[in-house]
Every structure is written in C-alpha cells, then in structure tokens.
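Lecture 7 notes: from sequence to structure.

We start with a single chain of 461 residues. Read the sequence below before looking at the structure.
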Amino acid sequence: MQLRVHDKATGERIGEVSIAQRDEAERAVAIASEAFASWSKVPVVERARLLFRYADALEHRREELALSVSRENGKTLADARAEVRRGIEAVEFSCGMPSLMMGDALPDIARGIDSISTRHPLGVCVGITPFNFPAMIPLWMFPIAIAAGNTFVLKPSPQTPLTSELLFSVAEDCGFPPGVLRVVHGGAETAEALIDRPEVAAVSFVGSSAAARHVQQRAVAAHKRVQALGGAKNFLIVMPDAVSDETCDAVIGASFGGAGQRCLAGSVVVTVGVAGDAFAPMLVNAARKLRLGRGVDDGVEMGPVVSDEALARIRGYVERARGAGVEILLDSGTVPSGGSFAAPVIFDRVDPSSELARDEIFGPILAIVRAASLDDAIDVANRSRYGNASSIFTRDGRAARSFAARIEVGMVGVNVGIAAPMAFFPFGGVKDSIFGDLRCHGKDAIAFYTQQRVVISRWPS
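Now the structure, written as tokens:
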C-alpha cells in the first residue's frame, strides 16, 4: 500500500512511500538484529569516523534537506534551515562517541581488587518521530544510537515521511553498512509491531502525551528501555520591566513560528501587573503583520498547519472560546487559498483553568493571562499538567533567579522565547511532557543507548 505525500501549502503531490505491514516491520527489525552482531564489534573510533562523514554529507546537502522539510511540513524555509542545522549539530555531538562512551576505573577498591565500569551497546533501537520536525528529531536519535554501536529502525510520521528517506539515502551514500539503519513507514500498527519485537532493546518516541503514555506502557511491559516525550503547554511570563520590541519579537516567534506546531511553542503569555495593558497591543500589531504563504516563498513568515484535520481542531478551539465570550484581540480569518492555513489568533484575559490555557492546541493560537504578581504567574504555569519549557522576560536578576528555581519544567528560558538546549545538553520536560527517566540528546542519550557493566577483578599472586 502506498502513502501519498502532499505539499501542505498547495496540495500538490510531491512523493509517496510504501506502508510497512506487520511482517515487513518485523523483517526490518530482523535485518537490524543481524547487522548488530558485526556492527557492535566495530571499534568506536571507526564508528565515529563514519558519523563524521555523515555530518559532512548532511552539511553539503542541507539546502536540499531544508526544502524537503518545508514542502512536506509547511514551515518556512528559514525555519526548516534552522531545524536542519540543529539536527546536524546532534550528529556532530555523536562524533564524540569515543569520549562519550568512556567508563570509569578505580584500582584497589579492596586489597588486590580493581574495579572498572564500561558502556556497551544495547542492540536494535527503534525511533518513532513526529511530523513537526521531520529532520531534527530523527537526527537526535539514530546517529547517537548508531555511534554507540546499536542498529536502528526509524518510523517517521506518515504525514512527513520523505525527509527520513532523504536522511537514509545520505547514510547509504556515506557507507553505512546494510542493516545498521532501516526506515519503515506507517501508523500506529507499524509502531506497535516494532515495539513488540523481542529483538528491540529500546524505543525512543516523540508525540502527544496520550501516545507517549501508551508507548511507554507497551515498551515497559515487554521489558524494553523507553524514552517517550509527550505534549506541552509552555508559559511565557512577561514582567513590567521587559515590555519592549525585543520581547515582543521573541514572543511572536515562540508563539507563531512553525504555525504553533512545536513542543516548545509559547502558547500562553502571562503578563504581570501593568505589563498586560502595554504588551497586548504590541503582540496584536506584530501578529497582524505576519505574512502567511508557502514556506519556500520569499518573505513568508508563517506556513500552513499540517492537515485539514488539524485546521478543523484549531478552529474548534477558537469557536468554543468565542462562544464562551473570551475576549478576542485578533482573528482575521484571512488566509491564502490551496492549503491548510490558520491565521494567528490572540485571546486576552483568558481564564487559566480554561482549555485555551490548559490544552496543547498545537496551532497559532496565543492566550494572554493576566497575573497580579510573579508568584501568581508561576502558580498559573505550575498548575499545568505539562512541564516541558517556560521562559521569563525581565531585567530583574532576582525575579529571574526565583523563576528558574521554582518553575516546574525541564527547560527554562530567561529572556529567550524558545528554551531549546544545544545537542550536548539534555532535551525534555517533566510531568506529562515525558514518560521515562532519560531525555533526548546530551549525556542522557548516551546513558539511554548504552548499558553499563561493572567488572570487579582480583588476580592471584
């Protein structure tokens, strides 16, 4: 069965891939398992050398990758280029595997007894990735896993499968041995077939919280390692001393970049004290000027959402809020024809307990919540069932320090709209934003994709 892929802005058919039935998914795992026997024995310096070649090849083809991302996802070409850059940075991080996999040693832990700890690959690892970052998130996963000596089966989102095929093609050109990296396509049935295979040792997932919880439960029941990143509702707190054009630009980028389809999207702005009256009109003026269109066209600042179904869900939130009498500051409804476009919408004086402030809408909807104090603003954010990221905008170091210490998230921003760590730091949240103990990339990824082994030795005299 073929899965057709369309340009999200025009509806034009741009490619197709074959959907893997259960037996095909199982065969991909079997091939990866067979390849593991030899790949895990390749010296780590040689594995790293292959990843160096891969990073260089991706660098030379980054514009081709960005164009693929933009067409099948809908995001602007500038946004797609930034995504590809962040993905390549993760590959560059994996090139340090000879140092990253180093263990520890301590001689004479007792008389005549030495002890060392070493790291070893797990086996076959599976990655199940979302539509919103079709290049970056796969590159968070398989280069690190493969550099550590594992083999990998990638199942990308059926909404954006073509970029993963391109990543695989580049890997083949670089000389990845057969079976070390496999790509299969499909939906939930394909993902479950991969998770269920006994040869699979670890599963990495990014998606909604409901799906992440299901993946974790299924993987843990089969005694597999799992890191499952779920949903988010990220709060941006604006203090009165930070009402400025610079802050406005950061919030607009965080809220409407990628049409709001980011796990780090700043979808709720909590204005403190008098900040609201001054800052809300600035946001409206800036959002009104955003140019919607096809992501690859010059001057476009926001592309379409991923599907008509997503568009209907987003408009449902808008109409329910309108019916409930929530104050609407911006909802032009004017969008280009031909694609799944959603215009920016801004609500003001939103009830923190309402669905606008609590649900992960995953679209270009910004809710403004008014708070009397920083304590109240932090309380609003911490009542969320999610805990991915949050930022504060202020010139007051004491306020920033208090915020960073008390906010219940995994990633904290200070005067930064998108609190996205670099590849050598861990990425992930708390509460319903993650299911599993270890996050993506950084040292957490090394721990996730390797097994520690402790050797205690004594030699007779």
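The mean pLDDT is 97. Keep this in mind for problem set 3.
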